[in-house]
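Predict structure. Chain length: 236.
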Amino acid sequence: MHRRSLVPALLAAALCALAAAPPAAGGGAPGPDAMADTGGGSQVITAVAADTGATRGTVTWWERADGRWRERGSAPARFGSGGLVEGATRRQGTGTTPTGIFPLPYAFGTEPAPRGTSLAYRAVEHDSWWCEDSASRAYNRWVQPLPADCRAEESEHLADYRTPYAYAMVVGYNYERPVRGRGAGIFLHVNGSGPTAGCVSVPADAMRRLLAWARPERRPHLAVGTAGGRTALTRY
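Prediction complete.
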């Protein structure tokens, strides 16, 4: 090959390789500086998937200091088996993870709180349930014991999920004023054996680190979104 034609050929090969490379987990979405709203506090956890059909992505935790957001850690994440969907239009039972920005009111677990945890932390006991019966007055709430108007078959017996609920944070999706049928029991928790039923999950060590890092006075929030499109993280 002549020297004159070598550079264009190498450039073309490099461009082809870049085009063929798979996108990074989470789609390389920007952090809190590019978001429309960060919840008003100084700690944000972002959970980003490449697109709405993805069941994997990246969780990153950020803290605002000296006038800018700084990354404090990250971990691979799993999402719902049905992918992600706009939180305001989600329907219960679809296996989708709602997108949006949500408070993290408290944490819980089948294991004791990790050292350094300062969020309110509830221990899972034998009669601890999360009511997901949309006809119940306790819809989308921790209940102990299960109330008469909340059907067990429509709810989660938390103690049955010792591994995924070893450590968990309650995600304030559809929580403050629950809309019947929109979804209940959305948590940030430890990985199970595969995609979730709508929660966000990370490895156990990442959950321990997150619980030691989160501070209630900093008003931590979870922001869930995609790298682009109608559910892009930057919209929230």
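Summary: The first helix runs from residue 3 to 20.
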